[in-house]
Specification:
By secondary structure, the protein is α+β, with helices and mostly antiparallel strands. The chain has 2 helices and 3 strands, in the order E-H-E-H-E. The longest helix has 9 residues, at about 20-30.
Length: about 60
């Protein structure tokens, strides 16, 4: 049986207005585009890097195994 991939649940808490264009693109890449949206994402180094880049716009709600 295949191992279940770990996921991170994140929520957008701030608007990308008056931010750099690449921060807006990172939000869209993560599947977020409105305040209050919650998304389950795979726990990979690339996803963590994207979250780190926009850490002031999102918050980690929880980790699932």
């Amino acid at each position: 049986m295949a191992e279940k991939q770990k996921t991170i649940k994140i929520e957008q808490v701030a608007s990308p207005l008056r931010r750099c264009h690449d921060q807006r693109e990172t939000l869209i890449g993560l599947g977020l585009n409105k305040i209050g949206r919650i998304k389950d994402l795979p726990d990979t180094p690339s996803t963590r890097g994207m979250i780190y880049k926009i850490r002031h716009l999102v918050r980690v709600v929880g980790k699932a195994h």
